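Crash report, auto-generated. Payload:
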Amino acid sequence: MLIKSASLIKENEVTPKKDYDKSRSIMSASRRQFLTQGSALVLATSFSPNTLWAGNKIEHYKKSNSPIKNELTPYELVTSYNNFYEFGTGKGDPAAHAHRLKARPWSVTVDGEVGKPGVYDLEDILKRQQLEERIYRLRCVEAWSMVVPWIGFSLAELIKQMEPTSKANYVEFTTLYDPDQMPGQKRRILKWPYVEGLRMDEAMHPLTLMATGLYGEEMPNQNGAPLRLIVPWKYGFKSIKSIVKIRLVEHQPTTSWNESARHEYGFYANVNPYVSHPRWSQSRERVIGAPLFTPKRKTEMFNGYGEQVASLYNGMNLKRFF
Amino acid sequence: MAKKRLTKQQLVVLKTFVFAACLMPFMFIIWETVFNQLGADPIQTLHFRTGDWALRFLFITLSMTPLQRFFHSPIPMRFRRMLGLFAFFYASLHVLVWLVLDQSLSMENMIKDVPQSPYIMVGLLAYFMLIPLAVTSTSGMMRLLGHSWFTLHKMIYPTALLGVLHFFWLTKLDYSEPIIYLSILLVLLGFRAALSRRGSSRRRISIVGLKNVFEKR
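Recovered output after restart:
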C-alpha cells in the first residue's frame, strides 16, 4: 500500500541524500546549537541536544522502499523546526523546551463508542501492533513542507481492536494537558488541551498512521512523543501530537484550530492548492532544507495522495468543506 | 533652549558612525545567508529579518522628533533623513526577498498569490507609499517642494500603520510581537497628536527643522 502511494510523488530536487548524510555526520556543534534554538540567544540551557536527539533505536520495523526516500528532510531540521504550540509558538521552542515532557510511562484513554473502553499502557498498545516505516510528505498550512520517515502503525488496526459501536462516526484525539510539562499551555494561545478529529472513514484509511518514531528512533519529544497521528493528505495541524485520549464519537468533534478561527482552519483541512487560506495562497510551498534559490514547490491536491484518498470526498464541495 | 551645536567635523564623524551602525543588521543578514545560518526555512527567516528592520527603522526615524523635543537639541533631526532612507533600504530588501525568493520573479506566481493574500497587498501598498518619500528626501527636493514637502512626508504615519497591519495580518494566532510593534508606534504617533493639540508649537518645530536643514547646506 505504502509503496504504491509513494510512487505518486515525483522525485525532485529536494534535500539530496548526500546532504542529509553529510549534515548528520559532520554537522558542527555550533550549527546544532543554532538549529536547536533558532536564532534565540539562548546558549546555556538545561538540556543537551544529544540527550534530546539520541532517542532509543527502534529495533523491529518494516523498512519503507518509498521513492521519495531521496527527498528526506534532514533529521536535524525535522527535529528542530516544529509547530507544537504546547511548547511555545516559535519554531525552535519545541526543541528547546520539550525535554520537560515525560514521554514514558504513558497511557492512553480509550472511550466513547467502543466495546473496550479503558486506560491502556502505551507499551501494551504497541505490543499488539506491527511497526513499519512510512515516508510521507508533511504539508503545513503555513505553506511549507518536509519529507519525514515516520515509524508507526495503522490507526485502523487500533480502532478495530477498540471494537467500535455502530454509532462511532468520528474519532476525537486529545493531547496531554499539563502546563508543567508543556509550558506553552500557560498561555491561552489555543483552548487547551489540543483536540483533533477525523471522520471514521478517514481514520480507517490505510494511509492514516499512528506514529511512534522517526528516522529509526523513538519519537523525539518535540515531534509529538510518544504517540502522534499522521494524516499525510491533510495540513499538519490535523496530525495531533502526544495523544492521551482517543474517543469514538457520534458527532463531529470540536477541534482546536477550527474553534480558534473557524473561517481559516476547517475540520477537513485537506491539502488543496485550489482553496487558499483566507490570508495566503496554498498553491505553492517552501521546501524545508532546500537551497535558498530553489523555486517553491507546487502543492499537490491531497498533498499528492489523491489517488488513494480522493474517493473519500466524492460529491463533497471541497471549497465549502475546506 | 540649550542648543548644542556640532562642528562640521563632529557631524561627519557621527554620521559615519550612525551609517555604519545602520548597516550592521544588513551585514548580519549577509553573514547568515553566506554561512548558511538562516535556519530550516531560510526564505521565511529573511522575510522576518528584513521586515523587522524596515519597521524598526521607520520607528527610529519617527522617534527623532520626540528626541529633539526631549533633549532640546537639533542633533536628532540631522539623522532623520539617513534613518528614513535606511527604513526604505530594509523595506526594499524585504520586497526583493519576496520578488526573487518567494515569487521566483514570476508574474504568474504573483498574479495568483497577491489577490489571495491581503497582507501582501497591504505590504506592497506601504512600500509604494515609501517610494515618493525616499525620492523626495534630497535637499534639492525639499527646497523645490517647500512646505508641501512636510505635507507629503506626513505619509510616513499611515505607511507605518500599514506596515504594522501587514505584520498583524500575516501572523498566525500569536500576536504578541505585532502588539509590541503597534504599541511603540502608537506612543510615537501619540506624541505627535499631543503636539498638534498644542497647535502653533508644532508649526514652529517644522519651520525650525526646515531652517536647520537649509542652514547647514
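Post-recovery validation: Chain B has a mean pLDDT of 91.
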